[in-house]
Amino acid sequence: MASRIGNETNLYVKIQFMTTLEAIYENGIFKPISSVPNTLKEHERVRITIETDTNEDLQAEINQWEAAGDEDFLKFEAESAE
Fold this sequence. Notes:
The protein has helices at about 55-70, 70-80, and strands spanning about 1-5, 10, 25, 30. It has a two-stranded antiparallel ribbon with strand order 1-2. Strands 3-4 form a two-stranded antiparallel ribbon. The protein starts with a strand and ends with a helix. It has one domain. By secondary structure, it is of the alpha+beta class. It is elongated and about 65 Å long.
C-alpha cells in the first residue's frame, strides 16, 4: 500500500511468512509433529489451513449422504454421470 503526502511517497509492505507443518489433532489441540520455525514468537497468532492426509473423511461423508438419500447429493451424482 502506498500513500502520498505532499511530495513524499511512503511505501508500506506487508511480508507474510508461510510454511507447512504436520500436526496431529488430539483432545481439541493441534500438536506439531514436525519442527516449528524458530521465527515464531511465544503466543504469536497464526492462521491454520487444514488438509487431511487421506480421503477417508470425505468418503465417510459421501456414504452418509447416500444413506440419508440427500437430494443435493443425488442431484450432484446424476449431473456427474452426464
